[in-house]
Design a protein that fits this description.
Elements: H1 3-14, E1 21-25, E2 30-37, E3 40-47, H2 51-69, H3 73-76, H4 80-89, H5 104-124, H6 138-150, H7 159-166, H8 172-189, H9 198-218, H10 226-248, H11 254-268
Antiparallel strand pairs: 1-2, 2-3
């Protein structure tokens, strides 16, 4: 006689202590579990995961893996290997890197988002007295750009590869999203409350300044990155001059503005190289 049906029959009828359960949903997050045993009926309310809970659970796992993967970037680069090592370090199988369809691009994106969040927290603690002035303080913009750029320091040797990864078609949307989020946060927390066309000019200009400064930083071997700070200061001063020219005579400077916008777009995508 087949042993499997006998085992099933034993579970069904062989032990009176066996409790068959029936679950009835009462809402999206709970179910009533009714148990029948020797004529007695009990109802137990238990919580069940919703789709949102499942999504959050998966996102938490991915964040733990990504956080651990950063520890392996200096050795394995912004790669699937780092993700696999990160998964193992977080207590998951190495094949969990399959959770990241863009591979190293997802790791770079996580790093950028994390650094942006850290910068916002730092800027919130900066003195706010100067924010009352009509002109956005250039010094605070300079400090914000330098603070963000220096977060790359632990991965400076591998960052050219990260920048190349960001230019791949699948990664461009995330790259632009984090860049625009960065410049918007910098403008807002350094006092920009404009609601006119200057809102766009400042953010597009700042995006170009940041990407150009990031490229310069990779070639900077000066002490405390002083050359990069000088570069940032010069680019901010140039942007201020352009802003003054636009305010004085928008028509006359239109060609120069369009050229600057074109160069800025190239900088944002990492297409330009320093000479």
């Amino acid at each position: 006689m087949n042993k499997l049906p006998r085992a099933i029959n034993f579970l069904r009828y062989g032990r009176r202590s066996f409790i068959p359960l029936t679950a009835i949903a009462i809402n999206n997050t709970q179910k009533i579990v009714r148990s029948y045993c020797q004529g007695a009926k009990k109802e137990i309310v238990v919580a069940t995961n919703t789709d949102q809970d499942d999504h959050q659970y998966e996102e938490d796992i991915k964040k733990r893996i990504l956080a651990k993967a950063l520890d392996f970037v200096t050795k394995s680069g912004w790669s699937v290997d780092s993700l696999a090592h990160g998964a193992e370090a977080a207590g998951y199988p190495g094949v969990s890197h399959g959770l990241f369809p863009n591979g190293g691009g997802d790791l770079v994106h996580y790093f950028n988002v994390t650094c942006n969040e850290k910068l916002v927290e730092e800027m919130k603690s900066w003195p706010k007295e100067k924010l009352k002035e009509p002109k956005v303080p250039a010094q605070q913009i300079e400090n914000a750009i330098m603070t963000r750029i220096l977060m790359i320091e632990p991965y400076k040797s591998t960052w050219p590869k990260a920048m190349a990864i960001q230019t791949l078609p699948n990664n461009v949307p995330n790259c632009l999203a984090t860049l625009l989020s960065l410049v918007d946060d910098i403008c807002y927390h350094t006092g920009d409350r404009s609601v006119d066309f200057n809102w766009y000019i400042r953010r597009v200009g700042l995006a170009g300044i940041y990407k150009a400064s990031e490229l310069f930083y990779l070639t900077d071997s000066s002490q405390n990155s002083s050359a990069t700070r000088s570069f940032v200061k010069s680019r901010i001063r140039d942007a201020e001059l352009i802003q003054i020219a636009l305010n004085m005579n928008p028509v006359a400077v239109a060609p120069q503005t369009l050229t600057a916008a074109f160069v800025t777009a190239k900088n944002m995508l990492g297409i330009n190289t320093l000479k």
